[in-house]
Structures are given as C-alpha cells and as structure tokens.
Amino acid sequence: MASGMQHKNAISTATEGLIQAQLELYHHSLGYVKSVVLRAATELGIPDTIHRHGGLATLSDIATQTGIHPSKYSHLRRLMHALTVTGICSVEGYDDDARYKLTLVSSILVEGGESMCNLSPMVPLLVELLKLTMLFDIKEWFTDERASAMTLFEVTHGCTPSKMKAKKGACGIFQAAMVADTNLVMEVVLKEHMDIFKGVSSLVDAGGALGAAAAAIAKALPHVKCTVLDLPHVIVGAPTSHDVQYVAGDVFEYVPPADAILLKTKMPSRYYGGARKLYQLEGR
Predict the structure, then answer these.
(1) What band does 273 get if pLDDT is binned at 50, 70 and 90?
(2) DSSP line for 116-149
(3) Pairing between strand 202-206 and 225-230?
(4) For 141-190, how does the pLDDT look when each residue is reduced to its tens digit (9 = 90+)?
(5) E strand intervals along 21-137
(6) Residue 169, SS3 per DSSP
(7) How far apart are CA 57 and CA 47, in angstroms?
(8) Edge-to-edge strands, sheet with 260-262
(9) Which of 13, 124, 163, 282 is most buried by a 10 A CB count?
(10) CA distance linking residue 120 with residue 176, whole number of Å
(11) At what angle do helices 212-220 and 171-192 cross, to 10 degrees?
C-alpha cells in the first residue's frame, strides 16, 4: 500500500515538474513581449498620462489622453494588464473600477517627474527592431566561417551600427537617449558622490557628445572649468553654453590638459593607450 502511494506521489511530482518546465519555457520564449509592451507604453505616453492625472488614472483616462481608437479599448485593457504583470505599472481595483499607478520603473519615464529625469528616450534605442532581428542570426554568427571577422550586427544588416544610424537618420535618437541616461546618472553622482570632485578645478569629458554631464557638473560646481571633447560631427550639434567649452577632436590623438578626465562609461582597453592619460573620474 505504502509502495503504491509512493509511486503515485512520484508520478504526481514528475507531472508537476513537467508542467513547471513547460511554463518556464514559454516564459523565456515570450520574454520579448515585456520589451515591446514597454516600448508601446512609452510611445503612447501612458506613464505621462498617469502622471498628469496625479499618479492614478482609469482606463478611460488613458484611452482619452493617448488617443486610443475606440475599437481598441479592450486591447488597451490587455496592454495595461501586461504592464501591471511586468511591474511597469500597478493597479488598484478591478475591471471598470481599475485605476493604474506608476511604479519605480515608470516614474522615470515621465516628463517633469519627481526626479526630473525622463529616461523614455532610452527605450526606443534599447527596444529596437534592428537589434531584435540581429539576435535571430546568432547561430549563423557562431558557425559560418564568413562571419568570423564580422560583428553580429554586420552579419544581419551588412553594415556597422554607426553606418546604419547615419543611413536611417537615427543619430538624433541615439543622442537623445544618451542625454537622458546622462541626466539620470549625473543626478545621482552630484547628490551622492560630490566628494570625487574635491580638488578639481578643470575637467574634460572625453567623448562627452552634447555635454549633458559637463553641463550638470558646471551647474553644480561653477568653479570647475568643464570642456567636452568629441568628434566634429557630434560637436556641431551641441547646444550653445557659456559654462561648457566644446572642442572638436579625436581622443585617440589628443586630450586637452585638465585636472580630471571623465569617462561616463567603461571604454575598451585600447582607448586608454591611445588617448594619453585617461582615467575614470572615480580613480583619479
């Protein structure tokens, strides 16, 4: 009798394991849905709409403010359900009484939010069709000898990402995303790590693009002379500023002298050898 029960329990456990494995498989296979739903919400301005309604909005509020066609109302409900399941939004109530709220993630996707940082321009850069289709060629990239000297992007699209951006006129999207990301990073740095600027009276932001980081530093620390160094075609689009000096050039060839060199992101090792003495600010 005990033997029969043990056998039955073993079968039940094995069955539960199979169902759990199937569930996890589907979860991983459909993981891209979270990304595209996030992009759709950002493009529709759903976080902004909730924010404008005091942080709590009904489905009707969202439909009206985002211009959702009446025939898509039920689909909007499904979209909002996906956003709540993934933690982009939260919800109070059910069905027609449901009211949607911002979460920590969606709070940085609004204009004029609490942190004053709007990271929504980063979403279309990260969740982008060219990057998604590129991933479908991983097998070829690993196994095809012709692809051995190519990047995965080049295997799929036949050119580098920079050439593709120029071809599609997407450089503006990239720059807007970088400015948004920099604004958030610098808000944290200038609030929590001001001590790293102690003794610094001049600073060069190497590869600083439109100068968002340098502008934030100059505003917080007016005594620091801030310079942005980047390629000529990047600098030409920089805003006019009395607080930041812009220098067109190549960091592989020359970096203006300063007390500190700022590299906002980690650069390849060859970057350091070719650009005189480049140090991340934290390791001055």
Answers:
(1) very low
(2) S---TTHHHHHS-HHHHHHHTTHHHHHH-GGGTT
(3) parallel
(4) 999 988 888 999 999 999 988 888 777 776 778 888 888 988 888 988 89
(5) 56-58, 89-92, 99-102
(6) coil
(7) 10
(8) 244-248, 225-230, 202-206, 260-262
(9) 124
(10) 10
(11) 30
The pLDDT, as a whole number, for residue 281 is: 38
Q: What is the arrangement of strands in the sheet containing 99-102, beginning at the earlier edge strand? A: 56-58, 99-102, 89-92
Residue with the two structure tokens 């190549």: 250
For residue 239, give the nearest of 210, 217, 214, 215 by alpha carbon. 210
* pLDDT tens column, 33-70: 999 999 999 999 999 999 999 999 999 999 999 999 98
Nearest to 243 by CA among 231, 229, 230, 227: 227
CA distances in angstroms from 23 to 16, 18, 262, listed in the order given: 10, 9, 46
